[in-house]
Automatic annotation (TrEMBL), chain A:
The gene is ctaD. Residues 16-518 form the Cytochrome oxidase subunit I profile domain. PROSITE patterns: COX1, COX1_CUB. Keywords: Cell membrane, Copper, Electron transport, Heme, Iron, Membrane, Metal-binding, Respiratory chain, Translocase, Transmembrane, Transmembrane helix, Transport. It holds the Pfam family COX1. It is found in: Cell membrane; Membrane. The chain crosses the membrane at residues 26-49, 69-97, 109-131, 151-178, 190-217, 237-261, 273-294, 306-324, 344-369, 381-402, 414-436, 456-480. This is Cytochrome c oxidase subunit 1. Residues 504-537 are annotated as: Disordered. The keyword Nucleotidyltransferase does not apply. It catalyses: 4 Fe(II)-[cytochrome c] + O2 + 8 H(+)(in) = 4 Fe(III)-[cytochrome c] + 2 H2O + 4 H(+)(out). GO terms for molecular function: cytochrome-c oxidase activity; heme binding; metal ion binding. Pathway: Energy metabolism; oxidative phosphorylation. Residues 528-537 have a biased composition (Basic and acidic residues).
From TrEMBL, chain B:
The chain crosses the membrane at residues 22-44, 64-84. This is cytochrome-c oxidase. Belongs to the cytochrome c oxidase subunit 2 family. InterPro entries: CcO_II, CcO_II-like_C, Copper_CuA, Cupredoxin, Cyt_c-like_dom, Cyt_c-like_dom_sf, Cyt_c_oxidase_su2, Cyt_c_oxidase_su2_TM_sf. It comes from Nitrospirillum viridazoti CBAmc. Residues 97-208 form the Cytochrome oxidase subunit II copper A binding domain. GO terms for cellular component: membrane. Coiled coil: none annotated. One of its GO terms (biological process) is ATP synthesis coupled electron transport.
Amino acid sequence: MTELSYLEHGHSLKSWLLTTDHKRIAILYFLSITFFFFVGGAAAALIRIDLLTPEPDLMSNEGYNRAFTLHGVIMVWFFLIPSIPNTFGNFLVPLMIGARDLAFPRLNLLSWYIYMLGGLFTLAVLVLGGVDTGWTFYTPLSSMFANGNVILAATAIFVVGFSSILTGLNFIVTVHRLRCPGMTWGRLPLFVWSIYATSLILVLATPVLSITLVLIAAERLFGVGVFNPALGGDPLLYQHLFWFYSHPAVYIMVLPALGVISELVSTAARKPVFGYRFVAGSSIAIAIIGFLVWGHHMFVAGQSMYASAVFSFLSLAVAVPSGIKVYNWTATLYKGHIALDPPFLFAMSFIGLFVVGGMTGLILAMLAVDVHVHDTYFVIAHFHYIMVGGTVSAYFGALHYWWPKMMGRWLPLVWGRLSAIFIFLGFNLTFFPQFILGYLGMPRRYHVYPAEFQTLHVLSSAGASVLGLAYLLPFTYLLYSLRHGEKAPPNPWGATGLEWTVPSPPPQHNFHELPTVDGPPYQYPVEPDTKREGAHG
Amino acid sequence: MNRLLTFWGGQASHHAHQVDTLFLGLATLAVLLSAPVFILIPWFAVKYRRGKPADRTHAANRSVWLEVSWAAIPFLATLAFYVWSTRLYIDLYQPPAEALAINAVGKQWMWKFQHPGGQAEINELHVPAGRPVVVTLASQDVIHSLFVPALRLKQDVVPGRYTRLWFTADTPGSYALVCAQFCGADHAVMGGRLVVQTPADYGRWLEGMGTDGSLAAQGAVLFRTRGCSGCHGAASTVHAPPLEGLYGRPVPLADGSVVTADEQYLRDSILLPQAQVAAGYPAIMPTFQNVLGEDDVLKLVAYIKSLANAPPPTKDRDDGGPP
């Protein structure tokens, strides 16, 4: 019998906007997140164009400050944090654990509406003239001195935080309660482990940010002295609260990507992930230790010398589980059957860039070096290697890997490989020069700079234009594949995992009968459903 | 080796050399730790390409000792660098007692420096080579950060508290001095130069600068003109703590705790007098928050510090309050 897929089950706008199907909600997130990715990207383009010359030419000082603030706010809260969990997590967690939906389908839809409400506030900030504090909202600049739309921007982030909290809660309950018979914790796909670890952070850290934003609003609107010393407050208190959320938030952004890479590497090599327990456990370790390193953002802020020494040590410790993952992926490839398909090229790109980002993070954790490179382009380059080189590469890897499952269509593999390569090259050209700029002493958030730095800035801007075009490329051939792509079989890559046992695209309720699992994950070999050659295009 | 890193701004101090050496060591460590990944992944991707014949027997799925070793060995290697870098950092908190004390105030969007002799300059800081200098940093408004790339040093300037930055510049020359912490519209142009001079040149420069007397003397003038002496002066009849011999001493507070009268305490007592009231005195001091700028407060603090070893006032205090 043929059953209607989730895509065919109703075509009206209402059937999408009132859906409680986790797969449709994933698509809603995918569309809205893609929109914000390009809005944030447009702000980045303005920044890179302005930095082509040492003089301010495109934007005024105020305009530039608003551009980088908007870039940060949109990319962090409206793209990176929801990116992989809310699209691929939403789509895949129930399929991967053998469930028919998330534990709270209506709450899931509500989360999307809350996300959109926050997004509307952010667009209002943009239309009304922006905000000029930087995405970090440091006090007392944000609470007393800035003249942009601080309250509105804080409201946007406050609102979208509830979307994060509810999504995290939904995943936690789902993983605890809705695993199919036989799907023990030790048999969960590693992507589910990473989403689970991420959800713990979402639920535990986000409320701290919400409270902090309320305090900023209270100080700005009513003069309640919390952070401003002139009112008896303490500006460092703000930094502690902000980074207590925002450092774990870095792991919200990167842990799901680590989970994606485990799936991609295992499928590409047709081998189980080397050391499943270590890789799964390292996600939980990152989530826990990630809560204890926030002070490394404050080595020159005036916190105590002893606090800095402790935070430096813990920051080295949090690198250990990340290192385990990278070395274990390498070992996974040993004696594998490796196919250089687009998802694997994105995974290799991820690993390379994540290693550079991680190693420079280790360097930044060193106190005496951080005193020099803190608040310079070295830091900018470091976290873009993690967030963009890492998370965005994994996001595109996931998009290529699960596209046939989500849309039921093959994608052109040649174009997929090309875009992986262009994104990798464009990324490195954009951000590697920034490491050098930073060590030379170029501070961040400068729209004018000494002439000596121009060559490196021009290189970086040139890379950004390659990167921008390379990011557009997948959207053209993926759209093309929706209409012209070959129909995808249930398991085109020959992968393990319950999501590959159902048709592509999956039926509305995922499984006719709930599956039963009787063995560990990643039991290769699995033969793909069609000859791969037919899929090339 | 460090000539490799003689970048823009150069190296103006021994500390800069040390940071560069540490950085090169760390970069080497980073290359060594990531080399296995960068070499093996492409190698495996070629050697074990799907469909290509290769020996694939005995492929393990786990190996606890292997995994523990690639967790532990890199961690232990980084610990050695941790000790090295933390020692360098701790040095930054221990300025030598004989260091030349300079005051700096950051405000949107300029730097104001003042030398002990009272010479003031804006967006330029002249210092003698070879002598330790400790800069006490105050902010008039938001957080700034004094960053001298050639010294490989920066320190945030936080409103409401004094922070310090000390260094010994070895090589005369002119170096960039910038603000590293985003501070609003003109953050990018809030900068100037650090001018390192030979001691003789520095001495001549100090003489050439006009000054209204030393920092402490300027503070003494403020002490009279701003009305401080009305209560704290020798002739006062108001029940207020005497300031002679106060600096560096423990001060019992009304809430029962005891603080040391350091620069921070003196500043706070002028700007936020109700926060820490000295025991035995009525809390009647008004705040000078909207009257005195941070640079004026620094002068008053310098004046009060200059009284540290002064004899106690020889007036007839009618209150007999605690000394």
